[in-house]
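To close the chapter, one final illustration. This time we ask the reader to focus less on the individual chains and more on the assembly as a whole: which components sit near each other, and how the overall shape emerges from the parts.
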Amino acid sequence: MSFNTFGHVFRMTTWGESHGPAIGATLDGCPPGIALSETDIQPWLDRRRPGQNRMMTQRREPDAVRILSGVFEGRTTGTPIQLFIENTDQRSKDYGEIAHAFRPGHADLTYHLKYGLRDYRGGGRSSARETASRVAAGGVARRVLAELLPDLRITGYMVRMGEKVIDRARFDMAEITRNPFWCPDPQAAAEWADYLDFIRGRDHNSVGAVVEVVASGVPAGLGAPLYGKLDADLAAAMMSINAVKGVEIGAGMAAAELTGRDNADEITGTQDGQPVFASNHAGGILGGISSGQDVVVRFAVKPTSSILSPRRSIREDGTALDLKTKGRHDPCVGIRAVPVGEAMMALVLADHLLLDRAQTGGVRGRIGEG
Amino acid sequence: MSFNTFGHVFRMTTWGESHGPAIGATLDGCPPGIALSETDIQPWLDRRRPGQNRMMTQRREPDAVRILSGVFEGRTTGTPIQLFIENTDQRSKDYGEIAHAFRPGHADLTYHLKYGLRDYRGGGRSSARETASRVAAGGVARRVLAELLPDLRITGYMVRMGEKVIDRARFDMAEITRNPFWCPDPQAAAEWADYLDFIRGRDHNSVGAVVEVVASGVPAGLGAPLYGKLDADLAAAMMSINAVKGVEIGAGMAAAELTGRDNADEITGTQDGQPVFASNHAGGILGGISSGQDVVVRFAVKPTSSILSPRRSIREDGTALDLKTKGRHDPCVGIRAVPVGEAMMALVLADHLLLDRAQTGGVRGRIGEG
Amino acid sequence: MSFNTFGHVFRMTTWGESHGPAIGATLDGCPPGIALSETDIQPWLDRRRPGQNRMMTQRREPDAVRILSGVFEGRTTGTPIQLFIENTDQRSKDYGEIAHAFRPGHADLTYHLKYGLRDYRGGGRSSARETASRVAAGGVARRVLAELLPDLRITGYMVRMGEKVIDRARFDMAEITRNPFWCPDPQAAAEWADYLDFIRGRDHNSVGAVVEVVASGVPAGLGAPLYGKLDADLAAAMMSINAVKGVEIGAGMAAAELTGRDNADEITGTQDGQPVFASNHAGGILGGISSGQDVVVRFAVKPTSSILSPRRSIREDGTALDLKTKGRHDPCVGIRAVPVGEAMMALVLADHLLLDRAQTGGVRGRIGEG
Amino acid sequence: MSFNTFGHVFRMTTWGESHGPAIGATLDGCPPGIALSETDIQPWLDRRRPGQNRMMTQRREPDAVRILSGVFEGRTTGTPIQLFIENTDQRSKDYGEIAHAFRPGHADLTYHLKYGLRDYRGGGRSSARETASRVAAGGVARRVLAELLPDLRITGYMVRMGEKVIDRARFDMAEITRNPFWCPDPQAAAEWADYLDFIRGRDHNSVGAVVEVVASGVPAGLGAPLYGKLDADLAAAMMSINAVKGVEIGAGMAAAELTGRDNADEITGTQDGQPVFASNHAGGILGGISSGQDVVVRFAVKPTSSILSPRRSIREDGTALDLKTKGRHDPCVGIRAVPVGEAMMALVLADHLLLDRAQTGGVRGRIGEG
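The assembled structure is written out below.
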């Protein structure tokens, strides 16, 4: 994990700015012989694409991905895969005022302080646009996982928008793709629609969200003590997404409120040489290594700092101003973080799957055997 | 971050098991010419040492650190520093039953499933004993930071024990070292003492905690987009500590409940070429790069799974048992996580300080200047 | 150095195949604020470009580089720089026979054995075409070095073609760019022209070469013991170039023939706090760290395995054949390796310059001072 | 490969100075379940040990290795293995004059110039003593290879001492361990004995050497384009050994003198799905990937710069002196480089074996099959 590269042996390097000619990701270390074409990747990008409804930025990008290398006659060759996405709808004139002023709560400021200059057009490198590269790379990771772990399922959804949370009693997996919020609770989805209309349209505001990503079918044994832990890598993966301010595994922050007796996930027996558990406070990870239970990650996305309401700030020259951000922004950027969180989960799992077979050969201990 | 190595250019590799002859850390990339001796490191280890009072495991380890390399005539030479700590009080007979059974919620199980075998004595590599190596390495990082960032202060403390939280209105920095809980609220500290006595002595239980670590005096510009973000590395650092299940930066998970107007940390002016803020929801990090505000990290430590109350589990051969963990365990392992969290903060900041000067030469943009 | 990434903190990741739509390099960790445009890079690519004279493959590629990211208003921003080169002259029909047979001495075979499949068109990823990406990246490294080490000069040239060597008594720096062989000896250059005409035209053969790359103006102190040595990284850098089979520093293999008395580079005094040497058998590197003398690297390039003379080989199905390689190939691929060697030298030096300032802050010990 | 760490997934970090209390190596990423004890490692150390005969430094070190972690009940656990070697025979008084003067051709100088200070006792970190750590780590790598590649054999020997070379017509594998020079030619060995007596005893000098290391039984498919090539990693590995100035693969530098027709290793058929070759100019590596032939590496070791003959040099204060190095030094340090070269070969092969199974799962393409 070095600046713009993520992963140990299945490595993604992303590049590109919001208003440059293109963005992309280079995937290195992909197993050879995996069937792969643009049509495997495009659907994931389409899920994340901006401009699809009024809940999102109105920037319209086709986000058409092209594979420029690493695939021959429909199969991966083991050499680096370049995923290439042209930028087509850069409306740079929108960014006049913030060219030389800083949005409070935005990377505008810290890029300037670190580098002494910044590409202010659309946030440059700090734009959520970069997450398209992640989603494309995640599409390749999913193909790898589909070959090596056919039972794996990765599902992301929103469990909170601002003050409003889902009712887990109404959790319905099938609902997730039926509303623009990836919300598994249809009643919450309806409320969120009204709420977000108010936030955006009347309040000229934005709002935060909590996203949960669950991977089921993860075999026991992925991850490694102590600094290559599966949960440490997931935490870094999710925290690296724009606007994320907190990451939880399983019970997460609430684990602090539990006693050891309540938090222990009792083991009630074995099935096919693997343990069976009575609960999953651990979120599928013990000592940094997957246990075979669902891997459960949650992360908080802060409200975007680009809002139409004025906030006090300064210009590069130090003078004060009240700043309103015009332009096309997501009132709840957490919505688009759902496919991104899924992609990061896929990337981490693919990386750890390969890393594990480096060390152990993929052979695992079992219960009730020699 | 590769298995047992942490950091980019200031790198720590730890080794050793709970009941082996010794544990230690190798620090690579330390700047040369830094004054360093065991007496700079030992006080930090003493703060974390087990067996100091009834709130902790009764294992008694002097945790005397020796510097075996990388220092000559009292100064670092730029070559690897080996920090060496002998284990002296291994009471392996305590671990009879769990030699072949798995504590629910413990890495016992996943080590077995991944590696096919494990050093069951005291948890082996998964023991919190490894954190002594981190604290020792953190002591070196603090010396580096003292030279390069003399105004930096790192302070860790507990803000929650189980159901009980501090009252921030009573926050008193001076209290932190006056009670065995690193608790900045003296009234809470008194309550926690009774609470923990009950949890441990009568309830045969354990309890979780939330630790907060604050670094003040961090210059703007540390961190790098997009996978070497300061917050992503802090998240990995804290999540890599035993028993941690959630990590927050600034407002953390609560950022999801805020609107953009409330979450924005308004900028009210400049001082010495740096911005002045009205609040710090961001926890001192924007776009993965420090802003000059306090860097604020919080993490949740789950209750230890080693408790005297019986829990359902299985043996390696698959047979069921009700497992009670005898031996010497911390009823609230979060207490000892405070110095560990501080050490990880020091290690991350030292690493990012060096990494930043690699790329930028340590020259920073300023406000109100060319 | 992980599969397709090279470097520690100034990192290059290359991607692309000979007959894919494009090739390129992502440069990560570049210092911000460096003036950079395509016109800084293109001249280096033009030096390496195929099809310039009869001594080279007749494939004609404009090798026009585009910067797709990381530069804003003519200066680097500190974010990843994507260097993009379209492939325009792929004549895939040339590769009919070798689609399913292996050229002896070529990566055809080992790619098949490792990955189970390969992009046979033009050698795919193993083609020397990839070196255009290196040369482009080297152009960026040279811009960084021009800012940080204005006195640095990197010069590559050929000292051997097959059996024929230069006479160092006739060494003339100005000659290097006056002949198609980067040969510093004008008489040798004339002989090589005839020799290569024979090798290619009449003998249907190819021939090896030795390239020397010298960097003058390298400050003392770059490199680090023991596995990040400057010479170890240079050796890996040069050995990673297609067809290279040997790498030497300074006296190189001949150092084995010397005695300690003869090999010692005596120090005759100091100038500006730096030592002055009587000779440079060490090639400017002692203990893996630059001494301030010229850094001298030499590498051997084997003759290309793609020749018009028949050689015994096998097909993928195991049947035997006598294989002649039609198509457009360099009779002495060492010629084009000269700009590539220079580029790798620039990349290694830029990386180590940044790495050194990470650890030491770029402050160096001097002679005759405190 | 980052300062003091070597390897991708099977990683060695060494630490320690010549005259510190101990030296050692941490091995991370070792497969679990490998039988391992000190008795597997000690014999390799004994081969390299100083003070065994008059051809070596007279420093007497038992070089007794202890395994401090990562092994439980005689098998590796998958956690880091600490190999610990105490220094017992430090005679620091020997180093009086060179405490503040620089041996010409020695790292004394560059450590001072880079770090501003150095541990001058016995060369500190730059001492060949560090290679004991490599040899110990190589012993673990050999155990891994013995399990995973039982047919692998690694053999190192000297082919040149100064002006004197072996006659390959007299090559006898059995001779290698019968003389103190690891010389496969008994007649050369006898000559070298006299030669070295003269060099050391009468000439007060030292002499260089060429070491060759051959690995047979390496499966096809190890290595990866383009910056993780097997030959690039071997080149870095060997160049990282003290005093090495050149590295060759197969025909090496001499490949430059060959034509393509002569250099091509013709493929004459297949056996068990693998190709059969008529020659091995490639040294078992094509395109950075092993071909199944013997992997052949050669490296040149310069004569040690610590000699009893006076050489011109300077002191730290810039004053001139004629420097003679008293103390106990190897007249031909290449001799002790033989076991070190073998160890580095073992480490590189183990690392690449694991790295390959990460990406490909260890499944290889074959000839004559689907």
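Chain D has seven helices and 18 strands. Chain D has a mean pLDDT of 93. With these observations in hand, you are ready for the problems at the end of the chapter.
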